[in-house]
Hints:
Order of helices and strands: EHEEHHEEHHEEEHHEHEEHEHEHHHHHH
Number of helices: 16
Shape: elongated
Number of domains: 4
CATH superfamily of the largest domain: GAF domain
Number of strands: 13
CATH class of the largest domain: Alpha Beta
Mean pLDDT: 85
Radius of gyration: 35 Å
CATH topology of the largest domain: Beta-Lactamase
Oligomer: single chain
Amino acid sequence: MLLKVKAADAQVLQLAQESGASGILLSGTVPLTLDLSSLSLPVVVLKTDEEDLRSIQRLLLTLLVSQRAGLVERGYHIHRQLSQLAAEGAGLAGLVRAMVDISGRGLVVQDKRGYILAEQPSPTLLGIWQDVLQQLSDLSSLPEALQDRNLAGKKATPTLQEISGGLVRLVVPVTVSDVARGYLSLVGLADEIDELDFMVAEQGTAVCALEMARSKAVREMEKRLQGDLLTALLYDELSPRDAGLWAQTMGMDLLQSHIALRFAWENPDSPSRRRLETLIHGEVLRQGLKVIFSAMGAEVICFSEIASTPGRPQQALDFGQSVLDQARVEFPQVRVLCGIGVPVSDLVAWRTSFRQAGQALEMSRRLEAKQPLYFPDLAVYRLLFQIEHNPEMLVFQEEMLGPLLGQENSLELLRTLESYFAHNGNISQTAEALFIHRNTLIYRLERIATILNLDLEKPETRLALQLALHIHRMGSAPVE
Length: 480
């Protein structure tokens, strides 16, 4: 409300407060004698000889419009600067650096799963930046309105949110095709955030959305090229020289070993193969691995670069396990299976590792394995796979286990026999594993021997029974 000082009295000031005015501006040179202590509104006295309130109003509007125009112009320059960096190939990391330089705040860009794609602290946040990143990496820390990606995609304005440590973040969904594909967070002290920060967040999010869309298009093209390369390699459609040139062009280090991993959903009515590809790609990014992968049928085939060291390929085993773990988090009702071949040191041998990973994946499905299955761990199953379709296998299984499978409590007896062999015939360890008394175990084993008419003390009998149990597990679900 704009008034002349001489026109102001207690009644007018009270009316201004009751009408919802934001503040009162008094104009004139007459001293103000009113008591303003009862007012909750800010009151400013403008000492001027100007009598025309309309002139003062026009001057104020001009100032406000000019300030807004200045912000709009600044926003245009910020957008142009960031767009130029994106065009020059600076990537998300370069865009984040520029936004930190402009705003003086810390900045984080995350994908839709919370993985941090680019980040940089401001000088004032260096000492606590890792704590900030850890807090923001949990998407449950997002404002509730942004936790649904479809709804968040329709909210383009920044949201100011308090976070621990006396900090606030200005968070904006990075929207592509009306869906939040990630989040940009500008982080600073609670009293630091100003209009420039809002401008940086808005303009930066728009450019990051274009950069993420471009990166996704590049990844899709790379995936197609990787798929073509894998198909040509695995089906022997390239000479070793051509395959090597193609692989090197795609940035692969052929001096390192590579190992095949094959992933698939446990059930055909599980989530789409595309979801599985997204899971795998997320783990590749998070762990910084050098992996090429491609979809083939219902599977996703990966070849991961690993160090050429003796022993088990722990990096590949950990990678496979991390995909299975993430799948359990995102899709708790279904499981992902993983088979892993052996490391190979040349492109021609990739086919060998690929076939081994396929056998491990198939055995993982039959055994309902909860961890990645490494081909050398298949042990005797590797031999049985070679003669799987030989009718003599089923004849042998029937001769060894037929009478036992016909019993009403066959599952209990099979569990007992498998546990007995798993503990190398140790009665105490087997009884403890089965949660039964050792005398109960001895009775069961004697009954099994009677039913089968076999002497369990003979080494050749034990070997034959273990082979029969392996054959039985290959053709059915594992004994619970």
